Amino acid sequence: MAVKKVLAVALAGIGVLALAVGVNTVRSGSRQLAVAAAPVLEVDAAGAAQRLGEALRFKTISDANDAEASAAEFDKLHAHLQASFPRLHAALKRESVNGKALLYTWQGSDASAAPVMWMAHQDVVPIAPGTEKDWQQQPFGGAVHDGFIWGRGAWDDKGNLTAQMEAIEMLLAAGFQPRRTLYLAYGADEEVGGKRGAAAIAALLKERGVKLDYVLDEGLMIVQGIVPGLAPAAAMVGVAEKGYASYKLELETAPGHSSMPPQQTAIGMMSKALSALEANPMPVRMAGLPQQSFETLAPEMSGMNRVALSNFWLFGPMLERMLTKSPSVNALMRTTTALTIVNAGVKDNVLPGTASATVNFRLLPGDTLTQVERHMQQVIGNDQIRIAPAGNSNTEASRVARQDGAGYATVNRTIRQVFPDVVVAPGLMIGATDSRYFDGMSDSVLKFGPVRARPEDLPRFHGTNERMSVKGYVDMIRFYHQLLKNSA
After folding, report:
1. Running DSSP on this structure, what letter comes out for residue 484?
2. What is the pTM for the complete model shown?
3. Is 167 inside a domain boundary?
């Protein structure tokens, strides 16, 4: 009889739990804005594609050490922009900042309205030596072929730059006047850190006392077939980006002969330290932005994906174990540890007296450089190993942009108007963008590229056969055109 009672209680508990999960799943309704699709804007697709193609012909490759490395190519690009967008250059103020960076100002009619900023960058990464022959079109040919605009920078990031200018040129032709002032910030060294360009523009505007309603830079995109269990495409709006930190580990011991090795060698101790760091990463943190992203997408999913992601209170530990198995998803939920450089030894019969290594961390918002350094010391547990920042590029993670403010709402609404078939969710930018320099000037610094990307497109970023579809590029122009109307 007692056994039956226990079983009855257990079954009742399971029933209550199942009911709670079901009710919570159903209650987790869609968080998508209900807006009508915007009328489809007529765009001169052939002309716009040709203008972007020509912009891709200029080899604006940035160099971390030499600001003048591609100066002539940047000058050619500037001349091309001026010739291609005459109304914009007549109506907007253009300033050259610290060399080749450009700052445009379109003065709004209401001086009391906080201005907005759109960003892009002019520079590109070089072609990997030996891969030129693998391109279907010339890397710097700017060919428009088979419905695509081919060339380095089509995705990253000249497409965004010229799409913004195309939209503004069209609005000027229609007699449009924004209420808010619009800034266009186009750095020339984003691919090597942005300190000469975007950082200088931010410093200049701070000197002028500028505060921004929102900032929009390159970032996450409209992804299809990448989020498991999600049928519609997802427009992921980056509301934060990870920090960046590299540390050098150094160890000195007495060198010796390999015939008489001590119990602990430099290589052995360094290997143990690196193995410990890799085996003990910083903890997963689902709370905050990762959970917000998943909970926004969950109502648009089907089956167990929707059930699990709608009930973090119950399935959280299981989700952590499952999701961290994917490197790309794991990177969204923790500060990652990557062993990138190891140096020790010069001869096979000599015990080296020194060993060094470099470890790279990408910081999740909420984690700090101080916490990373403390974590390394605790995990390594060896005072003989010195830990020091490698270089001067270590940066904290960005602040998380407001999702209840006007900036995110405006971008969200514009996406839903121009791409009515997609769902919108906040996301985390894993890489670094120029927009991080504007963190102190707005509480809505957003990272989003209004273009569709499938899994097969992702290797083209900084890779071979970079290209932008003409249709996708036209949609980018439509997005910026609608965004400016909504922002104004």
Report:
1. H
2. 0.91
3. yes
Q: Residue 159 contacts by C-beta under 8 Å, 6 or more apart in sequence? A: 52, 149, 153, 451, 468, 473, 476
What six digits make up the tokens of 133?
């022959």
Give the pLDDT confidence of 409-449 residue by residue, as tens digits.
999 999 999 999 999 999 999 989 999 999 999 999 999 99
Catalytic position from the list 166, 190, 434, 443: 190
44 is catalytic: no
Which has the minimum average pLDDT: 52-56, 314-318, 413-417? 314-318
Question: Residue 367 pairs with which residues in a beta bridge?
Answer: 365
pLDDT at 28: 60
Residues 352-400 have pLDDT tens digits of 999 999 999 999 999 999 999 999 999 999 999 999 999 888 999 999 9
Integer Cα distance of 205 and 105 in angstroms: 11
Longest dimension (CA), the chain: 90
DSSP assignments along 109-144, one per residue: S-TTSPPEEEEEE--BPPPPTT-GGG-SS-TTT--E
73, 123, 396, 443: the catalytic one is: 123
Q: Which of 39, 45, 34 is nearest to 476 (CA)?
A: 45
Determine whether 54 is an active site residue: no
For 485, the token pair is: 């109307």
Q: d(Cα 249, Cα 354) in Å, to the nearest integer?
A: 11
Alpha-carbon distance values, 323 to 59, 309, 403, 420, 459 (Å): 40, 11, 24, 29, 22
Give residues with Cβ within 8 angstroms of 341, minimum separation 6: 356, 357, 358
What's the whole-number average pLDDT of the chain?
Answer: 92
The CA distance from 307 to 301, in Å, is: 9
The DSSP call for residue 83 is H
Cα distance between residue 435 and residue 240, in whole Å: 10
Confidence class for position 1, pLDDT limits 50, 70, 90 = low
- Are 77 and 88 in the same domain? yes
Query: What's the average model confidence in pLDDT over 156-183?
Result: 98
* Statement to judge: residues 232 and 280 lie in one domain: no
Is residue 277 included in any domain, yes or no?
yes
Domain ends where: 362, 389, 416? 389
Which residue is listed with tokens 């056969």? 465
pLDDT interval class at 17 (50, 70, 90): very low
Same domain, 187 and 82: yes
